[in-house]
Specification:
The protein is built from 14 helices and 13 strands. The chain is α/β, with parallel strands linked by helices. A 7-stranded parallel β-sheet has the order 3-2-1-4-5-6-7, sandwiched between helices. A 6-stranded parallel β-sheet has the order 10-9-8-11-12-13, sandwiched between helices. β6 (140-143), α6 (146-155) and β7 (162-165) form a beta-alpha-beta unit.
């Protein structure tokens, strides 16, 4: 009897966010279901960096079609092997012309819930069409939080498949002490994420500007600043105006020790988003003994509970007040560091892989 074939869209394997999800989850799922053969669609040069992707039972198929493109709709169905028993798409941009069984991971419904931040009617139309196709075509859907699941059911109510919640995770190694000196010579606050309007960086910068005379901290911004669907010109303008206290370091490789050092030595991670389904940087910070100060929106209260200090993301004064509390109140900091590390132990990639592998086993059956 032949082994079942699971084909996975791995084109985003080196990206932040979804790339982290793929790098951490896929090898663990394969380990949990060793009876599977894997076919990985993506850039062979990128995939061959990973030892597990070169093991017997794994096939790499070159596929460089850009995400959200017409080309991917033509290329991916042709690249999926005909013997595929299940195709796993880690994002909602599924191949519309694929007729086999599909598992789709939905990280959020931002493009439906926040259309004011999606530039161009064609992009808004694209997201509506694709999400409806996911509900009509997928055999199973994974969402990274209950909030994300509720949003899928709200905006795309028509569908018969199970929508399963499997939370993101953090590797247990993040709980270990990170060697090496602080990556910045002064006390600092940390923002990790793409510079897009719904990340609300402009209000964070306005709040930080009001704190300049009250705290000695700099603000370190880590993340991609251009080349994505949207950008935040106001945030970039404000960051430039405060260049002596605001440092934009760009992207840092998620798997590089330097990112962990940024987390470990920060006095707080600030996540000011106005829309967030999970907020993976907050989990990584919590695991690194960095207290988290976040928006009370979306899936953040669900995931982080009492481990976070919350603010209203639309209230600049509240953002500033909560940051000031966290960096000046030692007992508050200690309490949130302890709670954060406890929460981080609840969300591991191993647990996520077990839940996902059980779903895959069910769909293959």
């Amino acid at each position: 009897m032949s082994r079942p074939l699971l084909t996975i869209d791995m084109r985003m394997v080196l990206a932040a966010g979804i790339g982290t999800y793929l790098r951490q989850l896929v090898p663990r799922v394969w380990q949990a279901v060793p009876s599977l053969n894997l076919c990985l669609l993506g850039r062979a040069e990128a995939l061959k960096r990973f030892e597990w992707a070169q093991q017997p039972g794994v096939t790499i198929v070159e596929c460089g079609a850009p995400i959200y493109s017409l080309r991917e709709q033509g290329e991916i169905p042709l690249k999926i092997p005909t013997k595929t028993d299940l195709f796993w798409s880690p994002h909602y941009n599924i191949p519309l012309f694929f007729r086999g069984r599909m598992l789709v991971t939905v990280h959020d419904t931002f493009h439906l819930a926040m259309p004011q931040f999606v530039k161009g009617w064609h992009r808004r139309l694209y997201s509506r069409v694709m999400f409806r196709a996911v509900r009509s075509k997928a055999a199973g859907i994974v969402c990274v939080s209950r909030f994300a699941k509720d949003q899928v059911l709200k905006y795309c109510p028509t569908g018969k498949q199970n929508v399963t919640v499997v939370h993101n995770g953090v590797d247990s190694s993040w709980l270990e002490v990170v060697p090496g000196p602080a990556p910045h010579p002064k006390p600092y606050l940390l923002f990790v994420g793409s510079v897009k309007p719904h990340k609300n960086l402009s209000r964070l910068l306005e709040a930080f500007d009001r704190l300049l005379e009250k705290i000695p901290h700099d603000l370190i911004i880590i993340g991609r600043q251009e080349g994505f669907i949207t950008g935040d010109a106001l945030a970039n303008e404000r960051a430039s105006a405060m260049h002596r206290r605001v440092k934009c370091v760009g992207e840092v490789d998620h798997d590089h020790e330097m990112l962990r050092r940024f987390y470990a030595h920060a006095d707080a991670l600030i996540l000011p988003s106005i829309y967030e389904s999970f907020g993976l940087p907050a989990l990584e910070a919590a695991a690194s003994s960095c207290p988290i100060v976040v928006s009370r929106v979306g899936g953040l209260p669900e995931v982080y509970g009492e481990s976070a200090l919350y603010f209203d993301p639309y209230d600049v004064g509240d953002i500033g007040n909560k940051i000031f509390q966290m960096v000046t109140d030692r007992e508050l900091r200690r309490r949130h560091i302890d709670r954060g590390r406890a929460v981080a132990t609840l969300y591991g990639w191993d647990q996520a892989a077990q839940h996902t592998s059980r779903l895959i086993h069910t769909l293959l059956a």
